Every structure is written in C-alpha cells, then in structure tokens.
Amino acid sequence: MIPEFPEFKRLELSDKKDIENFTSEFPLYSDFNFFNMWCWDVHNKMKISQLNKNLVVLFSDYLSGDDFLSFIGDNKVIETASKLISFSEKEFNKNFLKLVPEEAFLNLKHSDFLINFDRNSFDYVYLIEQLANMKNWPQNTSGKRIRNFLKKHSDYTVKHSSFSEIRHDEYKEMFHRWAKNKNINNHSELNEYKAFERILKIRDENLRLISIYKDQTMIGFTVYEIISKDYALSHFAKADEKYCPAAYDLLNWEEAKHLYSLGIKYFNWEQDLEIPGLRYSKIKYKPAFFFKKLTLSSKKR
Fold this sequence. Notes:
- By secondary structure, the chain is an alpha+beta fold.
- The chain folds into two domains: 9-122 and 293-298, Gcn5-related N-acetyltransferase (GNAT) (Aminopeptidase); 124-270, 3-Layer(aba) Sandwich (Aminopeptidase).
- The chain is 32% helix and 27% strand.
- It is built from nine helices and 14 strands.
- The protein has helices at residues 16-23, 34-40, 77-92, 128-132, 141-152, 168-181, 191-200, 247-261, 276-284, and strands spanning 9-10, 47-51, 54-60, 67-72, 96-101, 113-117, 123-127, 157-161, 207-214, 217-226, 231-239, 266-268, 289-291, 293-298.
- The strands form three sheets. Strands 8-9-10-11-12-7-13 form a seven-stranded mixed β-sheet. Strands 1-2-3-4 form a four-stranded antiparallel β-sheet, sandwiched between helices.
- Strand 3 (54-60) and strand 4 form a beta hairpin.
- It is globular, with a radius of gyration of 20 Å.
- The two termini are 38 Å apart.
- The model has no long low-confidence stretch (mean pLDDT 94).
C-alpha cells in the first residue's frame, strides 16, 4: 500500500497495481509508467507517496541523478503542489516540482506559482499508421534508407520475442556494440545500461522485443510495452549503425507495422532530454503531438 504524505516508501515490483490505480485515468506519460519507473530506479532511490489522492514520486534526474519531487493527479492540485514545494524546499533545498503533467494545471492560473513548460521533457507521440508507411515517405532520409536497404537485403529476418524467450547475453552484446560505436567506455556504468539490465528481469506479457538480423547477425532490437488498445510505449532501442546504417529506420518501421497489425493507434517515444542527436532523430520521425510536462516553482516573496 502506498503511504500518505509525508510518509514515503521505496518503489517495489509489488507496487505496480497500486501505481496504475493512480495513473490509468491519465494520458500515457512515460515518467509515470510503472516499468519505466522501476527499471530506471538503478540506485534504489525512488520513493512513492500519495497526497489528496494524487500519486507523489521522488525521482532522480535521468542525467544528473539529482532528487526532485513530482506528482500526477487532478485532485486539489493547488494545495498538493504547495505542500510538495514546501516539503521540497525543506528536504532538498529546491523550490520546484518537475515532470508535472500538463493536465493538472491546464485550466488553472494561480499567482502562487511560476508555471513553465519543460520542452526537454515532452513525450513524443507518433501516429502508428504514419510510421507503418515510413518506407513510402518521399523526400525523407528514413524512407530512402529503408528502400535502399530492401533492394540489397530483402532476406533480413525479424524476430518477435518475450523476455523469457531470448538469450540475455546476445542483447547485452548488442548494447556493447552500440556503446563501442559511440566511443563510450565502461558502458556497464551507464544508467541506461543498468536500467536495461533491470527490465530484462521482468516477466510480463505486455513487454515485448523486436530484433532484426542480417546475415545471421543482430543489427538491432527494440523493447516496447502494450499499454492499452490504443497506446504502446517505447522503452529501449539499440542498433549497430556502423554495420547497418539503416538499422534504426528499419527497426522503427518493423515495430510500427507490427503495432499497426495489432490495432494500436499511438506510440509514445518518450522525451529527448535536450540531447541534440536524440532530438533530431525524434523530430525526423514526424511526431503527431506531445504529452507536455511542467515545472512548477514557488514565487519568491
């Protein structure tokens, strides 16, 4: 059971149902997806609480590791935000909340807060039908790469798997090849790699992998989660672009075709964290819209 604020508990796998009781009525914000929360809690620092029937989360910044508070919910949001900011100032010397879903303050204007959109944290949401037609996109590098690849390598293979059906070492090696291509040393120390190791341990029928092979060599994989009849969420994608420059385009196209066959309408590809290459790649795949997040700060008196 999730305790009442100001009490917190550490996040555990057994909290999934309780957390989804809070989040299921809201759009698919990636930060509040349970498996996302759990796998990225690589230092076992994440804590959860509830206030005014809203879910409160103590996050660690994905890049810096700094602690901060957030919440999702639409109950007494002014009171909730005020209490959380006061607590944050006292406990963390920070007078703000981050990753607050836009819905909470969409129709509210309140003089006690500075409310700013955090563009770096917006979730990119794509129309599956459009991505599934990527091969035919004219005047687009992704479409051209797929078409050129298919002319030369029509015998590539696609594998659909659950985590219980794969050899974990093969996927860890793919991660290593990706890091080597990026000139990243000690990739096992990356938070992203540690998060990937954590998600590999989960057994859930809605978590799936798509892997692509050329000449019996894996060129990339993607991990996604079916959230509902309309939405899927991206968790991880790694490919060897030096071996196959079209690897990511091919992965994303195959993933979209499969999700489209399942009747899924939208795909949440998470945020870009203001990483230039990541932002460029997410924009080029033509997002349909964003799930916007806010930073709430207390005004200095």
